[in-house]
Amino acid sequence: MNPQAPVYVRAEDDAWLTVVYYHFHAWRGRRPFWAGLFTLLGGFPIAYFPYADLRLGNVSLAMATTGGAGALIIGVLLITLGLALWFQQTIRVFAGVASILLALVSLPVSNLGGFGIGFVCALVGGALALSWAPGQPADEAQAGQQPAPVGLVKPEATAGTQGTQGMPGIQGFPGPRETETARATETTAHADGGRNSAG
Question: Is the distance from CB of 103 to CB of 42 less than 8 angstroms?
């Protein structure tokens, strides 16, 4: 989603097809559309090929396997996950992991994952679902406080960086507080009568 994309405002002379396109474009930008589409498309060949028959003249080629029910379940689950990615964006991490695992399981169960077509589509859809993050509108991004870069320090930030011992603080970092000494080793060795020396 591009948070800086202009918002479509309908003009009076716009055709209905233009309005539908812009509304679909806005709907698509708020959800992992491509992840759902690839996951959805990956489910069809995985569910279809174990039940398909190919006829060449009088010869019938059946691609049915013993795992036909398993292939159907995997295909239906992938189709469901693809639709869920479109309408429930909050489960995108679960749906991404589940679609990758189902694609891997489809290799031995469903004719090498629908002859590789469904396998690759489900893997790509799962990866896209895991990597998708909702965009943030430009107004909210500018309203948030952004930290200053390390090399650039405001003049008021350097005021008061002098420690109590007269040591100046490093640029951008405050000096020691009033309760701290300049060198920590002076207080930790033999502190409170204890012996903490290493040698």
Answer: yes
3-state secondary structure (DSSP) of residue 113: helix
Other beta carbons within 10 Å of 195: 7
Single pTM value for the model:
0.58
Per-residue pLDDT of 140-162, as tens digits, reads 656 655 555 555 445 554 444 44
What distance in Å separates the CA atoms of residue 86 and residue 26, rounded to the nearest whole number?
Answer: 13
Nearest to 32 by CA among 90, 99, 98, 112: 90
CA 118/CA 124 separation, integer angstroms: 10
The model's pLDDT over 9-20, given as tens digits with 9 standing for 90+, comes to: 666 667 778 878
Q: Token pair of 134, please?
A: 């909702």
- Give Cα 34 to chain centroid, integer Å: 13
Cα–Cα distances in angstroms (integers) from residue 195 to residues 188, 189, 190, 192, in the given order: 9, 7, 5, 9
Contacts of 118 (CB under 8 A, 6+ apart): 41, 42, 43, 44, 45, 46, 49, 75, 78, 103, 106, 110
